Every structure is written in C-alpha cells, then in structure tokens.
Amino acid sequence: MRGHRGLAAVAGLITVGAMLAACGGGSGSKSSAAVATGSVEDVGNVSLTWWHNATADPGKSEWEKVARAYTKAHPNVTFKIVPIQNEQFTSKVPAALESSNPPSLYQQWGGGAEATQVQSGKLLDMTPQVSGWIDQLGPSAKGWQVDGKWYGVPYDYHVVGFWYRKDLFAKAGITQPPTTMTDFDADVQKLKAAGIVPVAIGSKDRWPDAFWWEYFVLRECSQDTVTSSIESSSFDDECFTKAGDDLKDFMATDPFQEGFLGTPAQQGAGSSAGLVANGKAAMELQGDWEMLVMPSLTQDKDFASKMGWFPFPAVDGGAGDPKAALGGGDGFSCTSKATVACPDFLKYITSAPVQTELVKSTTISLPSNPAANGAITNEAAKTALSYLGTVSYNQLYFDQALPTDVGQALDTAVADFVAGKGSSKDVADSVANSKAP
Amino acid sequence: MSSTIREAAGPVSFPEGTGAAGRIQSRPARRRSWRKSGELALLLGPATLLFVGFVLVPIAVAVYHSFYRWNGFAVVTDFVGLHNYSFALHDPDFREAVVHNLIIVALSLLIQLPLAIGIALLLNRRLRGRGLLRLVVFAPYVLSEAIAGVIWLLMLQPDGFVDRVFRDAGLGGLVHHWLADQRLVLYTLFVVITWKYIGFGIIVLLAGLQGIPAELREAAAMDGAGSWSITRRITLPLLGPTIRIWVFLSVIGSLQLFDLVWIMTLGGPANASDTMAVYMLDHGFRRYQFGYGSAVAVILFLICLVFSLLYQRFALRRDVEGALTRAVG
C-alpha cells in the first residue's frame, strides 16, 4: 500500500509541475521589446551584462578595454562582462531568453538563428536607434536584420576561402592559385605528386564539410535560386543535387589528409588549421578567423608570411556566379534587459577608432566598418578583404541563414555525405525532411 | 542486521504511546505527535523541496514539453501528442544510438568487470609500491571528462601519440584511423571509457575486499584450500554486494554516456559513435527542437528508470533488504 500512495503522490506532483509549466509558457504574448529613445545620460545608472565569445586574449582584454573606455565617456553605464566559450552559446542563449533574466547584450551571428531568437520576444528592436548610422557598415550588415528591423549589429565580417601555403605551392611547382575547378584538381595532383597533403579539412566538427557543399551550391545555383530556396527552406532545385555530385567528384580525387573524418578543425597541431600552420597540408577552405586561430597551433613564428589566400574557384558550366562568396560575421544583440545605452554602445563598437583598435589587437580580422580597413597588415587577410569588396554577394553560411533546426540538419546531412553515407539527393532533401519532428 | 535495528528502534520510537497511560494523558501525546511532525518537517522539508524543485518538477516539465513541437523561444502551443515519441522510435539514427549504448553496456560488463576485479585482487595483496599503483590506477578517474576527452582526441589523431607508440614498438601494422573509421570508432571510445572509469571500479572493489574478514581466508587456507579456490569460493561470493552495486552504476553510466563522446567525435563520423544523450543534445539544443529533445530525454529516463527498478527488485534485493525493496514491493 505504501508504495501505491507514494506513486500517487509522485503522479500528483507531476500534474502540478505540468500545470505550472503550462501557466509559465502560456501567459502573455511574445511581441518584441522596445525602449524609449533619448540620450544615454537620461536613463540613469545602468549596468549592462555582456556575453561575448572571447574567452582568451587578445579579445578578452580588448573587450574589457572597450567597456572601460565607454564607461569613462558615460559614467552612468557600467558593464558586467561574461566571456562564454563559443559552442556554449547554442545552449545558453535559449535558456537565457526563456528566463526572466537574459543578458543585456550577447553574441549574435544573424540570419535564421537570430530570427528564431526574435520569437522569444526578448530581443530589442533597435531600428530607431541605429538607422542613422548603420549604413556605414555596408550591405552585409543586412544579415542581422529580421523582417526589415534591426535586432543585431555586426562588428566584423567573415569570408570563407582557401588559406594556402605559398611555400608548399611553390615546392609542387604551382605558380598561380587556381581559378577554375579544373585547375584546382590539377593542382591537387601536383601537390600529391610532390608528397604534400593537398587539402586539410576538420570533418569531426561537421561545419567545415558544409563550407565545401555550400560553395559548390553557390557555383551551381543562381543567386535567385539560393535566396528563394533558403527563404522557403526547400532545396528541390536540381542545382543542389549537382552541387553534391561536384563534391563527390572532388572527393574522388582523394584530396584530404589521412583520417580526416576524425580531425577537429581548431584543436591542436593535428587539427586541420594546425596541419596548414605547420606546413603538413597545403591549404584549407576556412573563414578568415583562420589567421587568428593558427598562431597558437604552431611553433613557427613566421608562418603568417608563408600564407596566401584565394577564393573558391569557378565551376565549369555552373549557373552560379563565380564571384559569389560565402561568409558571415560576428555581432551583438541587445535584449529587453538593456536600455538605450546598449544600441549606443554598439554604435561605439562599430565606430572607426574602436574598429581600428580591434583589428590592430587581432581581436577581429575583417572589420565591419570599412573605415578601419587600413589597419589590416597581414597579406593573406588583405587579399581576402579586397576580394570581399569585389564579390557579387556574400551569402551567409547556410546553417546560419536557415532556421536553426533546418541548418543543423543540413550540416549533419553534408557531414554524413562526406563520410560516405547518403546520396547527393539526400543532402538536398535533408532540408525539407528536417521539419519532421 | 536489519532485524536487530528494527527491534531496537521499536521502544525508542513509541516509548509509551500505547496502553492505558496513552489514553488518559491524551494532551501530552498530542504534543508529542506535533513535535514529531515538526521534527519530520524540519529534517525532511528542505531535502524534499530541493528534490521536488530540481528533480521532479524538471522531469514533469520535460514530459510536458515532449508533447509539443517547440523551438525553445516561441509560446508553447503546438501540441503534437505522442508524435515526438513515435518519430524518435522510428528514426534509424536514434535506434542506432540505442544499439551503441547497449554495446557499451555489454562491453563494460564483459571486459571492464573482470579487468577491475583482477586488478583489485592484485592491488589487495601486499606488494611493493602498492600505494603508488593504486594512485596511478585511480588517477584518470579524477581527471575531468573534458580534459580526458581532448587529450585522447589529440593522441588518437593520425600519426599522433598512439600511432607513434605502435610504430616504435614495431606494431605499425596495428595502426588504424581510430576516430575516423566508422566500424572502429565506438570501440576506440570504449577503450578510452575503460581507461577513464576503471579506476573507480577498482577502488570500489578494493573497499569491498577490505570488508572481507581475513579470518575467513585464513580458515580456508588451514582447511587446505588453494589460493584460486579461496578467491573463487570465499572472496568473490563475499564481494558480491560490491560487484552488484558496481554493475548498477556501470550500466546507468553506460546508458547516459555523453561527455567523452561529445568531445571526441560529436557522435560521428556519420553517427557511428552516437549515443542517446549525444543524440538528445544534438537534436534538442543544436537544432532548437526542444520539444523533440525532451521526448528523447524522457525515453532515456524511462529506460534508466525501468532498469533501476528491475535491478533493485531482483539483483540488489538481498543487499538492501528492508530499505528500498520494502518501499518498492
């Protein structure tokens, strides 16, 4: 008998808990938050809780410096800075936005993930505060808009391309970086003949695989097809399957390092970035953060001067623009916890002097405010930046541009495909299928 | 043991609560019962609150969310009934993850248990440097999972530390793509798991061995029993309760396996090392499918709960007679 009563009590508790949860979830509509306009000084003493992803120097102390400088100019605004490891944002942000106590501003990569977060009603619509100055950040900043409203502001941009070893290319007798996929395949063979691993890839982390597939998509599909397919989350155009076939053909040339399916992207000298930094592989398809990641992975103090950059080659017969780039950027979103001080702080972060300082301290590589472009010294990064100025459009990474569930399902499908599981069609279909649960 | 305690407890709990005295002096009795309730509330209250707040309510909330399609941000409105459960049970990836968990459970019992017993028996003997050996064996368990995972991830890279050790020992033919080979990766992980957790098993078993009176072994030796038959007929049976507890912890741990897998492979390549917990985090948090993730969490919880209850009912019954079994049965 005792046992049964105990069970009944547990059942009762579960019912109460479920009802509590129901009340919590159901109350109130979730429209977006807004603050009154006015000057920062008018809002009285404010403490901003700031979540960013720079857990190590130089970024960590650089952001502290930026916050101190802002407090000096606006003594009523103070900061509580919480550096959080990059991957933890995926779990911390949802929990924080569900709670009644989210941070005032936090790391934001824009796109579909931002749109999903906006549904919480906790993100601040900053349109009135930022519309006067945000144009200086160029058209790429639109990636942080949701339905024409500004819920985030980027402080740097990224472009994905090939970071290559000039010394190893020379050793294999390659005088010019390839511009078409045919040349690229030929160079892969030359590098192999010279006993050099042609391409490093960090397949363990999945997203590096996605870069490859997405670039083939940009080369095979027209911009209109890419944009409308991402908008409708359906990749049924034939060009998406063709992109998978291209990737399969490329992998058939055996271009990657041994055991690449278990290789991490950025951890240790054996990671894909580490292999290139140490001259054990000739190139890697990566974002411009590569140059910020590499120094800690190699003993070679001089490696940066050996690095070059070239964009993803053109694909013969593809309907896509050979000048289309894949990229993104880092930014911040303000929440309902913040006041007008938060958008004003973002204006400060993206101002020319602060951006210049961020580039000089190697906190960021490509500033969102072009006024700071002159501060870039590394040759490879300069090449990437000047290319970014010439692209027809800079497509946000698909996993970021799509709603999060769809984007992650796509990453997994591409990773499976690279590991030999599934067909080109399966990858394209994963986008529609991901909606199932 | 337990019966003595119960007999002893009788007079202490109810010193004069029954009989004539009790009926006449009803007021002090009531005061006593108030006092007793007060004591109970004071002693059990905080723990009950914590247990309800941090165990039962979260479980209830997870069950509630598991009936909805919910991305973690919007209002919870999209009721889908048992759809999340049926989707999980029909998803080949999830089934694969369950199988991987069961393989780890089986390997733990078949390989880790004999290994742990053997090493514990060895370390229970008087031998030089025993303290140091115990320390060395236990050291990996003290390391955090994250650190152990990263260390092994780096050591197992092609041409990494492990490969070089094999090559230098003239065993270059045994070198494989430890983490990249889909047929091998789960077993590679099992070796790391064994390295990480075997120390715990050994320490638990050593503690169990300390509890076996030396007189029994001496008496058996006097009766002419050899060391093998002493181990088999005296030591191992008396070690039974400890072994049963270890098996319980090991199975639950294997079913909930997460940290090392997440850090070393993310469940890949192509789900070849996926476990239920990894699958849950991947779908729940990374894909923002919190309703579906909750359903997977509830399935994992139910599997563990059913195992725990059955194991307590049938295997641990003798060891904990009078404690858990009475409440359950």
Tell me the distance between the termini of chain B. Answer: 20 Å
* Number of domain units of chain B: 2
The residue fraction in helices of chain A comes out at: 40-55%
Q: Count the E strands of chain B.
A: 2
Structural class of the secondary elements of chain A?
A: alpha/beta
Q: Would you tell me the overall average pLDDT of chain A?
A: 88
Oligomer: heterodimer
Instruction: Report the portion of residues of chain A in β strands.
Output: 5-15%
Helix content of chain B: over 70%
Rg over alpha carbons of chain A:
24 Å
Q: Biggest β-sheet of chain A, characterized?
A: 9 strands, mixed
CATH superfamily of the largest domain in chain B: MetI-like
> What order do the SSEs of chain B take from the amino end to the carboxyl end, as H and E?
HHHEEHHHHHHHHHHHH
Unreliable residue stretches of chain B: 1-23, 323-329
Order of helices and strands of chain A: HEHEHEHHEEEHHEHHHHEHEEHHHEHHH
Description:
The complex is a heterodimer of chains A (437) and B (329). Chain A has helices at 2-26, 59-73, 89-98, 111-118, 127-130, 166-171, 181-193, 207-220, 223-232, 238-251, 272-277, 290-293, 341-349, 352-360, 379-388, 398-401, 404-418, 424-433, and strands at residues 46-52, 77-83, 105-108, 145-146, 149-150, 153-165, 197-200, 281-286, 307-310, 324-334, 393-396. Chain A is built from 18 helices and 11 strands. The longest helix of chain A has 25 residues, at 2-26. In chain A, helix 17 runs antiparallel to helix 18. Chain B folds into 2 domains: 17-65; 92-320, MetI-like fold (Orthogonal Bundle), CATH 1.10.3720.10. Chain B is 73% helix and 1% strand. Chain B has helices spanning 2-13, 20-24, 26-65, 83-90, 92-123, 130-142, 145-155, 161-168, 185-210, 214-222, 227-255, 259-264, 276-286, 290-314, 324-328; strands spanning 68-69, 78-79. Chain B has a two-stranded antiparallel sheet. The longest helix of chain B is centred in the first third of the chain and has 40 residues, at 26-65. The two termini of chain B are 20 Å apart. At the A-B interface, helix 1, helix 3, helix 4 and helix 17 of A face helix 3, helix 4, helix 7, helix 13 and helix 14 of B.
